[in-house]
Each structure stands twice: as C-alpha cells, then as structure tokens.
Amino acid sequence: MSTHPDIPPVYRGRFAPSPTGPLHFGSLLAAFGSWLLARHAGGEWWVRVEDLDPPREVAGAADRQLATLAAFGLVSDGPVVRQSERAERYRAALDELLTRGQAFLCHCSRSELAATGGIHHRCVAAETRTRPAIRLRVEPGTVVGFRDALQGHFEQDVYTEAGDVVLRRADGYWAYQLAVVVDDADQGFTDIVRGADLLDSTPRQIHLQHALGLPTPRYLHLPLIVDAGGQKLSKSMAALPIDAGDPLPPLRAAWTALGQSADQLPGIGGVTALLHAAARDFAPERLPRRASLPFAAPHNTPAADAV
Ligand code: GLU
Question: Quick check: pTM over 0.85?
Fold first, then answer.
C-alpha cells in the first residue's frame, strides 16, 4: 500500500473529522464511502484530525473518534495528522499571501458585516481592533467551477457567495479553509471524498489553491444524510452516535445508503470479513447522484431490516 516518498501516489484519499462530538451515521457514511473509493482504486486512505477550533471541541473526542473508526475496521494508512500541530505551515502560507498582497488585515466586526449577510467585499470597520482577522482578497468576477465525480459540474461566484475568505479568525484561530487547503496539498491527497455539505466550500478552496500555487485534487461529494425535516443529521435529534460495540449493522446500513446492493455482504459475521467483501464488491457507479439522502431511507431497506 505504501509508496516511495518521492513518487506521488496514484490515489490517496482521506477522512477528516472535527472532534466536536461522537461520530454519527453521517460521519460513518463519509468515512466508509471515502475508504471504499480508495480501496476500489487500489489506493491509500488516511485520517486527519481537524482540531482547529478549541471552543467547539469536546475533550477526548478525537481519541474516541479514532477508537470508533478502529472498531469499524477503518484505520489510517498514513500518520494521523492533527491540525492543532500544524500552525507553522499555516503561518507560512499566510505570510506568502500577505507578502504578495493577496491577503489583508480586516478590522470589521460581525455586526458591521451583518448588512451584507456576513460577506466581506471591502472593509467598513469603524475602529481598529487589537486582533484583526486576516482575509484572502477575492476580486469581483471570481467564478470557480469544477467537475465533481458524483454531483457533476458545480460552479460558484466566489466573490458574490463568499466574498473575501477568512484565513485567520479575529479570535486568533486558523480558519478551516486555509488549513484544509494547506494540509490536503502537504499530505499529497489526490482525491477528496466528503459530504455534500462541503460542496460550496470547494470553489473557495480551489481559488485558495490557485493563490498558493497548489495542485487541485479530484473531488467527490457524497449525499448528505438529512433527517425527515431535511436538516443535516449533526444538527438534529437523529444524530445518535454510532455504536462502536456493534459495528456490523451501521456498516450494512451505510453500504445500502451508498447505493450498494442489499444482497451483497450476506451472512458475514466479522468486521474484517465484511470490509474485505465490501472492498471487493463496491460499485462506485451505484453511488446515489444526489446531494442529500433522508436518514430514514437506509433503515427502510431490506438489508437494514435484516440486521
Ligand atoms: N472537518 C470537516 C468536518 O468534519 C471535514 C473537512 C473536509 O473533509 O474537508 O465536517
């Protein structure tokens, strides 16, 4: 599985959870889906801990997430990088953008930007703050499109929809957009597979890759699991933690939610055997080409009823 450090991998994918709580079914779908696509391509699958936002973090959650993944047989092929240990790399990227005038200090407050829906096009700050945010300058007419392997062509006017992207927050923490772009490039990921809730972050990440002269990986956004009311699972009552003590039923439910045949994986009693069969039988062309999937659906399938 491992490759020579100087030769870029043919396929290296990742799962990058934020340690804000236990993994739920939607997280499992992203983890298992990205793992299946990596294995199908004969590639590597790595895990990265996105512990960038201490106020939102739950103590011990990162280790519990890794233990849960291990109970599901999903173990990183490469070193598990923690974003909290990567400040030097983010600082270097930020300095590069500041030096070139592509990033700037911003003293605007949240309430000052409320009138433009939080979108920053020019500074309107009435006073100087001791800790300004740092933003990427996004010029009018910055339209970024890409071909998502599942969702098809996706295009966004980054200037109108996102405005000047925050790179370092006013509270001093690194912004997700900067960290993810720097890390995905440094870690040599060729393929980013994640939930469709991040679909509209991708154009601004591609724009940032261009600004930093970094390569753009391939993208595939899996349908987001939503509850009956259409709410993202992590924001609803249905966001029950997946049970690390009983991994087979959620793995089978995730398999069918990923559009795979309920007739496969029959009578398999162990995680290792199930993953082996899943990697062998996975058919990417069966992945549902949609941005969201109701949570009830996987549980209404014959396979889910059988477990
Ligand atoms: N850490 C992000 C999350 O848990 C995912 C980031 C990504 O996959 O790019 O939603």
Answer: yes
